[in-house]
Amino acid sequence: MKIVVGLSGGVDSSVAAWLLKQQGHEVIGMFMINWHDTTGTLYGDCPWKDDLVFAQLVARKLDIPLHTVDLSKQYRQRVVDYMFEEYQKGRTPNPDVLCNREIKFDLFIQEAKKLGAEKVATGHYAQCYEEEIDGKIYYRLLQGIDNNKDQSYFLCQLSQSQLALALFPVGNLTKPEVRRIADSLNLPTAQRKDSQGICFVGKVDLPTFLQQKIAAKRGPIIEIPSNSPVFQKDVALISELAQPYMYRPIMGKIVGYHNGAHFFTIGQRKGLHVGGKKEPLFVIGIDVDSNILYVGEGENHPGLYRKALYVSEKDIHWVRPDYELEPMDSQRCRIRVRSRRTLHDASVIKMEEGLVVLFDQPQRGITPGQFVAWYDGDELVGSGIING
């Protein structure tokens, strides 16, 4: 089988390419250039240039061809512009999830097909299996066996047609095993550190990066006390329970100032620069229209925790279409609200116009704009953008 591997210059994709070649496939490497601008990057350089050098060294070591494709224009349009739009709304997007849906498993697949690829492979720690259910073929997206490195969450927006073409060769290995294989082969990437920061952009100073499109603007930081009545009200309807707390300036007092509410996210601690407190302050609310940050003192502040969240109808995505719920149906699932969070038990409830995730235990830092993914056991079956 002819397989195009996305060689990123990291150890995971390097070992993925070697494993496929060992299995007897015709392996072709492809390196994507998706970003050129260095505005806001912490090291002031172009990380992709170093990545390309490592990808070239790996391809030479494995004796496979390497092609380079520049998708930076499409990446800006489909991923970065979306980031700016979301931050302007006071929401916190996840560009890595969008990058996988829009770039790695869409445009990249199109480029791979030009080379005659039958499948594409990446170094993600996830697993995908084909299974026939009631006479129909489904592609099951499962967690990687390494719980510390599982990346299924980042693939939560993929479709059945995308998964049908995807291979994840290292998904049944642990990270230490991948490192050992790379060491034994003397691969140039064997000891290279994992990439961090925004997909293809790298580590950035977020306010500086966002100020390319969003102007800094001074505004108040208002502290909401933990005993505020806003946390005490009884809620009868599930749909109401899934809505975020609604804060008003009159509920608290000004304790400092910020340079733009857009630059912060729910649960953030750093960057507030407010002292004189027994415990750290955390962001619990963002009002971009009034340019106000609402904060609470301490890790156990009730404003940091939510019992439920809401996903609007247009933002629901079923990785497994046969799991789709009808209005007023519900399903017990395990839920992940951020990439590094553990899975938590919850009920997924379909409403007439949207979907509610009702947690067994309140969850910290529920953030509009982020993705929530729901699992049946180890299989990721659906996801959506958190609206409330």
Give a verbal description of the structure.
The chain has helices at 11-22, 47-62, 72-88, 95-114, 160-163, 175-184, 206-210, 238-241, and strands at residues 2-6, 26-33, 66-70, 119-121, 126-133, 136-143, 166-167, 219-223, 253-258, 281-287, 292-297, 305-311, 316-318, 330-336, 344-351, 354-364, 371-376, 379-385. The protein is an alpha/beta fold and 388 residues long. The chain has 3 domains: 2-207, Rossmann fold (3-Layer(aba) Sandwich); 210-304, Adenine nucleotide alpha hydrolases-like domains (SH3 type barrels); 307-385, Elongation Factor Tu (Ef-tu), domain 3. The strands form 3 sheets. Strands 5, 6, 12, 13, 14, 15, 16, 17 and 18 form a 9-stranded antiparallel β-sheet that branches. A 5-stranded parallel β-sheet has the order 3-2-1-4-7, sandwiched between helices. Strands 9-8-11-10 form a 4-stranded mixed β-sheet, with no helix packed on it. It starts with a strand and ends with a strand.
